[in-house]
Amino acid sequence: MKNIILLITYIYLFQFSFSQKNNTSNYHSPLGISKILSSNFGELRPNHFHMGIDLKTNGRSGYNIYAIEKGFVSRIKVSPYGYGKVIYIDHPNGITSVYAHCSKFKGKIDSITKITQKNEENFAIEIFPKKNEIIVEKGEKIAISGNTGGSTAPHLHLELRDTKTGIALNPLIYGFDINDNRSPEIRGVKIYSLTKDGYQLNKSIKRQTIKNGNTYSIANNSINIPADYITKYGGIGFAFDVIDRLDAANNPCGLYGSYLLINGDTLFGQEINKIPFELTRFINTHKDYKEYLLNKSKFHKSFKINENKLPIYTVKDLGILKAKPGETFKVKYIAYDAKKNISILTFDLTINDGSINQNDSLIHNSNFLMPNESISLTKNSTNVKFDVCTSYEPMFINKENIESIIGYNDIPVHNEYEINIKNNDIKDGKHYIEITTSKDQKKKLNITYEKDKIKCKSNVFGTYELKRDTIPPYIKPKNIGKKISQNYISWKIEDKESGIKDYDLFIDGDWCLLEYDYKNKEITFTNERRYKGYAELELIILDNCGNITEWNKNVVFE
To answer: Does a structural domain hold residue 4?
Structure first.
């Protein structure tokens, strides 16, 4: 009976919470097909929350994209990376809608984009049209769906933002109704030993759940943990592996909201209605980072560190359960989605008898990187500066190794740190730093020269090396003979050292627009001007260290 009353209470709270938000609107559908999501708002991603919804396009490009409401185009951007080709529209209701990964723009948006690209002689451009310069009507065709930028498959990434603040809003709460009668899936629970500041003491227990409808349990309905998980001032933290699925597709989406109750009292809650972009990297402490990195598990912590500024929590004592050996607690975890579908996990937590951990905090010295401190370390010709909140957890930095290794490559970085290396080499722009991160991924860091120093900033830890790039980029034509009858031509381009910076094609001396697909290492020219007859092609590729490769060929356009 108590559980039924509690459930009714929480359903009422959810209804009250949802009534405070704009959950209904008359937005036009952004696509002319059924709205089926491959990803929802707030889904866990590497280094960021997913800040919109991804609408499926049947695995292909080419669908019309429509403005969801009347307004004016406030921003247009074209990039080989990130959002690819993207449009921003400001609406009278104070909302900005964003349409990303387009393959093409339509109408005046397309015209002003191509004019700007030609004037700047660059594929990658960004435009901020004046208010009402490009007015669009509700339901107007503005683009064609695609797979540009960092997209890994054709789809439409749609965002809603507060126009004044730029804060990303959850479209499923602020205007888009998606059919969903499926409750979240609670797949596991993890329990940690914590300091008073929410930092982990390298002790944890993980358990899988047993599903029975929308209720979940664990084996024997109880978990026992050793007494040394407890410290004098610290306590216990919980995380839960949760995903959600919607009606029209079986792919996993992210968790919207949850509550953690201990003996009937709320210790922690989260609800992902809106996220400021400048705070999205705090996802690396919101989730169990190592579980995500190693297993792609979606463990949401129900506790936080002081430094975590995300405005999505309802929290008491950082979500840390203060406990003593011999105590038993009733744990209830409630997960819910944007349509108020609910799942519940319950179990007993018992602290075994025994001695507590006498180490209340992580001992540190001048080589210890604490989240709330900044430090500077020097070894011979190398100096490394760490700002506040470079790391999310206390971490030892071996000063003796900083000339080649900084931190641990499986630990995330929040604020960038700075590497300074004294170097008397010629300052010819040929230097860069290569850092090897988790799973042997290599990242290129651009440097700047300052008197006798080489400087760079990094947002990853790992093993690094100062390198010089004197090798020009590689070019290989793909479908170019002496006679060209097709509508487009393309080249394979690659730079294995510092990376591609710029690419320019000239036909009979005139600059021509190229599209760069970095995922396939390919650039493409589309013959929209319908060149005919003899022509001289000149392609110039520039890398990030100033090395140039030129390719020339005389052809006949048929």
So the answer is: no
